[in-house]
Design goal:
- The structure is a single chain.
- This protein is of the alpha/beta class and 242 residues long.
- It is 41% helix and 18% strand.
- Strands 3-2-1-4-6-5-7 form a 7-stranded mixed beta sheet, with helices on both faces.
- The protein is globular, with a radius of gyration of 17 Å.
- The two termini are 29 Å apart.
């Protein structure tokens, strides 16, 4: 049996400026809530000091597990590697940039634990004006995805969620390889018949460093290339669990 209740998997790419704060805030808030938590930090072949910082955090903290890619595998690859290295029965994923607040983790976990939905997903609420443009684009893309895939979710693309390790593994399994698989992880769960509970969370400015998304509009346009195959897999071939 695992010593941890929850493993938090964080895929990291050039996040040297955020990791110390992420680990400290996560550990403090989870400890105060009485939830034994493993932090699984996956370095996706970063070009900065992300790897060395994760190694140092692992030496100093028994609850930190470092995973290191020798080749960039993208966020879904990071999630798969993090899942393989995790030990807890429950899995949460979040970003390293602290736009999702670690202080919301206990709430997502307790809802999953007590109310027993298959997946609890943080539904992003814009926090300030600087985030509004990207937030509105995300809302528009979520609206499009809801129409295409027959779902009724407030925030399809949020990468802040909690579920069991078995369901998370199933959510990562797709028939096709997608350019942006992170857009379809919750759609995949819905297509496989898992129940999804969405809980409002604040969406903050990036704490430090720079996002790899330099133009949200261009990023959104590039995301459209995945839609035809995704429509076939997640809408036409949709199956319900029994």
């Amino acid at each position: 049996m695992s010593a941890f209740d929850l493993s938090v998997v964080v895929a990291c790419f050039n996040e040297e400026a955020n990791l110390e704060n992420l680990v400290q805030r996560s550990h403090e808030t989870m400890s105060m809530s009485g939830i034994a938590t493993q932090s699984v930090l996956v370095d996706d072949c970063s070009r900065d000091r992300t790897r060395s910082i994760i190694e140092d955090l692992g030496r100093r903290h028994a609850f930190v597990t470092g995973v290191f890619h020798e080749k960039n595998q993208g966020i879904a690859g990071g999630w798969r590697s993090g899942l393989a290295a995790s030990t807890a029965p429950a899995i949460a994923i979040m970003d390293a940039d602290l736009q999702y607040a670690p202080e919301d983790l206990p709430r997502l976990y307790r809802i999953w634990q007590r109310e027993k939905p298959d997946v609890v997903q943080g539904w992003r609420i814009a926090h300030n004006f600087k985030a509004t443009y990207r937030y509105l684009l995300s809302l528009g893309f979520s609206f499009l995805l809801n129409k295409l895939f027959g779902t009724n979710l407030k925030d399809i693309k949020s990468g802040f969620l909690c579920t069991s390790r078995e369901i998370f593994k199933d959510m990562l399994e797709t028939r096709h390889a997608y350019v942006f698989p992170q857009h379809f992880i919750v759609i995949n769960a819905a297509a496989k018949g898992y129940s999804i509970r969405q809980e409002p969370v604040l969406f903050w400015n990036r704490e430090a460093g720079e996002s790899f998304i330099t133009s949200p509009f261009r990023f959104g346009l590039r995301s459209l290339v995945d839609l035809p195959r995704a429509f076939v897999e997640f809408r036409l071939n949709r199956k319900r669990r029994t």
